[in-house]
Amino acid sequence: MSQSSGDIAITGRVVSVSGSVDASAVLVRGGRIEAVGGPEVLARATALGIPVRDVGERVVLPGFVDPHIHFEQYAGVRGRAVDCRVPGVKTIAEVLEKLADGLPHVPDGGWLRGYGNLFFDQKLAERRLPTRVELDRVSCRVPIVLQCGGHTSVLNTPALELAQVDRFLNGAAGLWGSPVIELDSAGSPTGVVSEIDQLLPIPPVDREAMAESLTTTYRDLFTSYGVTTFGEMVSSLDSVDPLDRLIGSGAIPARAALYAMVPSTAPLDEACRWVAGYRSTAGPDRLLAAGVKMFADGGYSSRNAATRTAYVREHAPHAGYTGHLNLTQGALIEAMRAVRREGIQLAVHANGVRAQDEVVAAVLAAGGAHDHRPVRIEHAGNIVGARSDLEVWRRANVTPVLQPGFLFNFIADFVPLLLGDAGTTGRLPLRDMLDDGMAPAASSDVGPGAEDEQSSPLFSIWECMARQSYWGRTIDAEQSISFAEALRLHTIEAARALGMDDRVGTLEPGKYGDMVVLDRDPRTVPLDQLRSVRVDTVYLGGRQVFSRDDAA
User: 326-364: per-residue pLDDT in tens?
Assistant: First the structure.
């Protein structure tokens, strides 16, 4: 027998995350863990003729789980768009120069696409976004879109004309939040638009090029960081078959759960039926459909998150502005009834505290919160309005899916710019959440505009402990949690958010042999070195799927 059949034993510092004491060996047979323990496990492996790998003092962890990513979208821009992120560029002039360099590579009838960071307007030296007029200097013939973190983009004049942006000025609900078309004093679009990226008439990527970009993106941004299971937020059902083929062939060595975004993929009832009936060719142990995702509000970067307190006047269209609610309580209750009929899960994007209030109120009004799969609230916990909110969340049995990396990306430094003093409290209060009995899941929410390290669970764990801002400040140090606590958020709690905690998230008998070997023990390194701990080897179902080139 050999590792090619998913049979292997590993000896080292085994951290099971199961609540049991650390072990020194784990045995995988047929892709599933058979035993975790000490010398007796190795003796059994030897008797069975199963190869044993000794990793010495290095640490063996469960494969990391990232329950919320926009993989296909990021692979799409990474494969053909111009990277304009800070610190690679620092000024608007440098953004325009990089876009101009990419112009000769645009095919006939194509769009020139660029992407910047979340809160690009605050990270550029000018502290503003480029304008339509500035993008027109790059080209007044080729349509240009500069995506700034997923919610906000800047379009040049040809792109605005092709997008027919006037149709978004009627106040209708959007795909990712209520559409916002910024107008100048004369009533003309400035080029800055929000929540309409999925409606832009951009030609699709060639299938072969997209498959290559999906494969390399997962290898570079996820497998190399030890992520073996992920939750994909699906914006188009056309992206599902290519993902199925790549996972089934092993080109993408991972397990995945799909969440169909509504209404991007289909209307609510149709999307629910699709999820309930979906069967992958890769098999349910590798790819399944778990639920639907809806948007109760938009993003902070687009000044569209629904808040309890007003935005400061500088960042608001009018005095007293508190963002936009994109879904009524009635629509949320209808969504809960629809997913319950099909036995699937509901995930709701709710950045702002007022949007979170609406979701929780709808869950409580619908009743039966503990009789069905918990509703996921994406981004709940990134900002908590008051500690008393946590008790209401517990009663509603919701699962907060938060993003520790966002504290670094924008929450610590830039939300206070939007909300004033109200934005300086309740920022990722992990200590309070754990002490009050909450079990949030941590995700990266990687998509266009992500920072370089954002897909690394070790970076996210470091942020749970260090609580460092983009500008290098320590934010609410009393809310720091331990490595062991943070590890749970990125393994078993993340798996639970996907409904996969019976299969992944810990090293226990019966679960898949998904494992990560680190080059050092992250529990013993100084905190400032934690984010530089590297993944040496990754196993999926006992089979080695990654080995760092210079690993010992």
Answer: 898 999 999 999 999 999 999 999 999 999 999 999 999
DSSP 3-state assignment of 434?
A: helix
Q: Name the residue with tokens 């290095």.
A: 58
Quick one: which H or E segment has residue 215? helix 207-221
- When divided into structural domains, the chain yields a total of 1
Question: For residue 510, how many C-alpha atoms fall within 13 Å in the half-sphere facing its CB?
Answer: 5
DSSP alpha helix (H) spans, 52-180: 71-80, 92-102, 120-123, 132-138, 157-163
Alpha helices in 436-480 (DSSP H): 457-466
Q: What residue numbers bound the domain in which 524 lies?
A: 3-63+511-547
Centre a 10 Å sphere on the Cβ of residue 362 and count the other Cβ atoms it contains.
24
**Within a domain: residue 51?**
yes
Contacts of 398 (CB under 8 A, 6+ apart): 359, 360, 363, 369, 374, 375, 376, 377, 380
| Torsion of Cα atoms, 146 then 152 then 155 then 161, to 10° | 140
Residue 24 within any structural domain of the chain: yes
Q: What angle do CA 310, 311, 314 make, to 5 degrees?
A: 140
Q: What is the CA radius of gyration of the chain?
A: 23
The single-letter DSSP state of residue 217 is H
* Domain of residue 537, CATH code: 2.30.40.10
- Collapsed DSSP state (helix, strand, coil) of residue 273: helix
Residue 113 pairs in a beta bridge with 145
Name the strand (E) or helix (H) holding 268. helix 268-277
Q: Which residues contact 538 (CB under 8 A, 6 or more apart)?
A: 63, 223, 224, 226, 228, 253, 515, 516, 517, 544, 545, 546, 547
* Contacts of 74 by beta carbon, 8 Å cutoff, 6+ apart: 217, 221, 446, 447, 448, 450
Question: Where is average pLDDT lowest: 76-85, 93-102, 431-440, 522-531?
Answer: 76-85
Dump pLDDT digits (tens) for 427-483.
999 999 999 999 999 999 998 888 989 999 999 999 999 999 999 999 999 999 999
| CA–CA distance, 193 with 201 (Å, rounded to integer) | 14
